[in-house]
């Protein structure tokens, strides 16, 4: 019954969007953004790093007068809470006048755009590497790592000669992992290539069966597509089995310490920000401000969180709080942020400065 009510609200909300979003109500004391992240549990470090950057950006926006003179605040919800319901929280926040949301870092995120895309009175920034995340509707952008960009970089590490190359692509068994894995397979399936694909469960720890299969296939390259949650156990298992090829991984944001192996090489997608190679004034100012506030250096997740709020605030101001006019402010444009230059295509999807590093 709640879901039916939710969709009815979405259907009629667009009618009132211009009235509700042109400016905050006279009695409002703040302009709010909704934030939904998995802030608890074993993988909470990544989400909290994003939130740290968001909170810093929020304070900076307010130090410069807020958005059109209205202070900005963040309504933060923990999606890892056992009592959390996205539909109830989303409906509640929208009822409270929130029209801009930052959603991500959970496996359920990729299913939510099927709901939010039907709501013309909201604008969403996706913190997800799922390649087609912004294609469901015209009311969203991605200010985060792009899985397709990762796949392009990872594929370039394969060296081909006169002999056939044996490649294994392994992805976590969810919608985002499958999409990145399929994209990788499409890039890698060239001449003189024997390509194999397999999947593993989220949080998988025992890779012995996969290790034996990889050995039978005499793999030269093994690709890992996931969040990093399983990468440590995956690499350990391959190392124990004597694998001597290259392991090539997407950027791990739920990563544990990766064991060193003399037999194999491990490559990961990484941000140039994390490598200390972004020297723009915007990025330097962010790093200095973050250190002053938190007493430590920021990681790349905090940089994306910071850019998410700063760019969303810019769009709110220029659109005068109208979500329907926000994506065109990103489409086909580029911005210098904490993470470096963020370049948006016509669908609101973005690329940012990434590279491959050997661990």
User: Which value, in Å, is the CA radius of gyration?
Assistant: 21 Å
Number of helices: 11
Class from helix and strand fractions:
alpha/beta
Instruction: Outline the low-pLDDT stretches.
Output: 1-22
Which strand order do you get reading across the main beta sheet?
Answer: 7-6-8-9-10-14
Kindly estimate the percentage of residues that lie in beta strands according to DSSP: 15-25%
The number of E-state strands comes to 14
Helix content: 25-40%
Largest β sheet strand count, sense and barrel closure: 6 strands, mixed
What letter string, H or E per element, gives the SSE order?
HHEHEHEHEEHEHEHEHEEHHEEEE
Please give the alpha-carbon distance between the first and last residues: 50 Å
Q: What would your notes on this structure say?
A:
The protein is of the alpha/beta class. The chain has 11 helices and 14 strands. The protein has helices at residues 2-13, 17-21, 44-63, 86-95, 109-116, 147-155, 175-188, 208-216, 231-240, 281-294, 300-319, and strands spanning 31-37, 72-78, 100-104, 123-127, 140-142, 165-172, 193-200, 221-225, 246-249, 265-271, 334-337, 340-344, 350-351, 354-358. Strands 7-6-8-9-10-14 form a 6-stranded mixed β-sheet. The N and C termini lie far apart (50 Å).
